[in-house]
Amino acid sequence: MKPSSSLRSLLKNIDQKGYPAYKSLKGLYDFHDYKLNIHHVQGDPFASPSHVNIEIDGKIAEFPREYYDTSWRKIALEDYLLRLLSKNVEKYSFQAKGSGKSGLIGTSRCGQEILERTALHIDSKSGAVIACLEIGFPANGRRVQARELEKILFDFIPKFTQSALFYKNMNKKALKNCIDLSDDQYFIRQELVKRNLTAFVNNGAILPRESGISQKPLKSAIPFQSPTAFEITMHLPHYGTIRGMGIPKGVTLIVGGGYHGKSTLLKALELGVYNHIYGDGREYVITDSSAVKLRAEDGRSIKNTDISLFINHLPNGKDTFSFCTDDASGSTSQAANTIEAMESNTSLFLIDEDTSATNFMIRDELMQKVVLRNQEPITPFIERIRYLYTNCGISSILVAGSCGSYFHMADQIIQMENYIPKDITKMAKQIACEFPSISIPKEQPKIPAFHRCFYPDPSLQKDRRIKLKVTGKDSFSINKEIVDLRYVEQLADREQTAALAHILLYAQTHLMDGKKDLQQIVQEILNLLNIKGLGFLQNGKDLKNGLAMPRKQEIFFCFNRYRKLQF
Predict the structure, then answer these.
(1) In terms of Cα–Cα distance, which of 180, 258, 523 is closest to 415?
(2) Three-class SS string for 63-82?
(3) What would the pLDDT profile of 202-226 be if each residue is shown by its tens digit?
């Protein structure tokens, strides 16, 4: 490690030289209160920015041990510091002038969800803090502008490091509120298990968002208020007494007129698998962390998936116990999504009628009489929904606006009226008795087999050059093969997508051997992530994208959307 004075000398020596002279700055420098690690220097001022780490010893950062002594507190603390750092960094970005990306200073931008990220890490033993920055080293044309970089390294970085990463300079009350909130959110998740609930929505929650492109709460929104029949009370460790709607396990139907809040409630439940920041409005909207949003996904690839629980005896004789297609229909795609969710050990399906394949969801009594069962290869979801709960332990929360047949199957029915939920279970059940129920097959189906074993893609060898590219939250590519994640709707951040790209590549190059099935492979990855953290995916390389932790369910869905899976 070199003293900071040597960095200043190096800058003086390379001023006005060709841009590659910046490469000489790589190394670790002591700035007394922190260390500055310049570990990747961009090739020219128009290339991806340079990568710089700020490393602070735990004894100097001085964050209280109890703020990172559990996994949920540690993630909450990292998230809080990263948001604070990002806010402070913005004040200095592009204050140093030059060509191309000169003067850019940035770090990961967080959304409303609290995620574990590589952009800021706290060592759980020592309390040391490592923050990752992107910096556009300044240039005039393609010549080094050392004085401008000196401003960044010796003026800007010390200022925002002191204000954002040292406990002594924190708003200690705001930080403690963040840690306390994480405790309360963890407590609610434990209570869901104890009370046999699938989800909890607190009274006063703000569910609607500002717009389709903003996840901030809608200021004019109607606060959520639980129906009396579903209202429960919890005594949180810090917040104290809280009341709200507890959704029991089983089959829950959410109905109501258009634009009355059905899908808004479901969307909140979808993202309730994550914790949310203070002020989001959904801080205490907590859903079973294994919950999966199911939908139709026309055109997706399906590889050797057992969809026989829903589809059998296809006219073309195609095997549905090991079903393959490169262009799935609405019904086969939703069937495959359901089976893959079961494979990921989900305990809760979230379904919106609007994004489902109609023939997968329902065949009413009249249709059953016209098109006989032995003439229809699809066994609709309505005929399996009770079986999935009673035999597989998987609950369902279903939004329906036009299909009344699910009234017969539901354990509880909630009507959304002007964004206020009402319990209509008894009334709806009485009316449903006046209408015929669909017939359910008497024979019990077999639970699908999850024994698909993968071989690595021959084109992805450890010693070959492999190009990864992440396109927002919706997709990534490995070499030229695109993995489409548009309809994996519970992905909350593009950095999760980046992590999935590296997880898939790691599995292909290290784990897939034709003997391990997908559940074994994913479990090995989760064990590595738990022990080593997300950083192990970097493998000593400088990544263009920061990484955020995806859920196990998204890892399964990602693997199944890679069209070049080998069996």
Answers:
(1) 258
(2) CCHHHCCCHHHHHHHHHHHH
(3) 999 999 999 888 899 999 999 999 9
